[in-house]
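Forwarding the complex inputs:
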Amino acid sequence: MQSRTERFAAFRRALKEKGLKSTAQRDDIARVFFASTRHMSIDDLYQEVRKVNPRVGYATVYRTIKLLKDCELADERHFADGQTRYENAESDEEHHDHLICDKCGKIVEFNDQRLESLQEQIASDLGFVLARHRMELYGICRECRESAGRTRRNRAG
Amino acid sequence: MQSRTERFAAFRRALKEKGLKSTAQRDDIARVFFASTRHMSIDDLYQEVRKVNPRVGYATVYRTIKLLKDCELADERHFADGQTRYENAESDEEHHDHLICDKCGKIVEFNDQRLESLQEQIASDLGFVLARHRMELYGICRECRESAGRTRRNRAG
DNA sequence: GTCAGTGCAAAAGATTTGCATGCGA
DNA sequence: TCGCATGCAAATCTTTTGCACTGAC
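Prediction (whole assembly, four chains):
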């Protein structure tokens, strides 16, 4: 598991390799991103970065997250709500999937090796060599089920 | 497995239940959608519907696909390319997941009961009651692998 | 000093909404 | 007839881009 420091170093290295410049904005955005709780939207990232460096523009956040994607340091995700979010890229060893509560929106990460092997097998049976996958489970978490009897809280749409 | 006629009837019924009107536009859009190859974008649907009825507006396609979602007759999907697409909703018995070729974009549907049970079990272990899931496997299909030896085609990224 | 990187605002896409009019029930 | 549904255009929202200026190398 890469530390945020290692990721940041990898970013700097990748920039250098590509002949791109390290700038205060890129550094701030990358640092915030690597330090972040996972699954940030562009706007989350923008807001966080502005706290550190109010001189960063929205466009630069977009441009930098695209760089991070290219460097394979950020994964883009489109969950069922349609919101585009980003998370720190996972290496093979730390791959995980998501379990999402339909009520409170909580996202739990998990990894199950049986699932991974089964997927490989299914793909192979259908003639594919599997590169990657996305899996999201949606349901209601324990807390929401327990509080459902008392309070009824729903999310729009 | 519901036929397109059954789906259409279900749509009409759902409209009536909700106190909404059946109109030529809604009928045309629904018919085209139910008859469609799967995974249409809004624009695909719009283009197809215009062939049948050139008097249908873009906004109505949006409004109607939303209706179809509400009636659980259309499923909205956001594949990794970010394009929003719709497909005929699946009932529990005909649920399927997707296997997508990174090279040619081919989408193969499959269903595997072992996968379904495993997912239930994982969710339950983590305290969730599972409602639904999304799973997409990405890889390279046999045809693309076989032609790769001759022609080398790569995608950016 | 040079040219890539940046902020801003404008542009481009995708989706939604306001409003006058049309049409189904 | 009555009011929901529609088409159009304008409004939103998200993301990208053009341009003059800044700053890393």
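Chain A has a mean pLDDT of 87.
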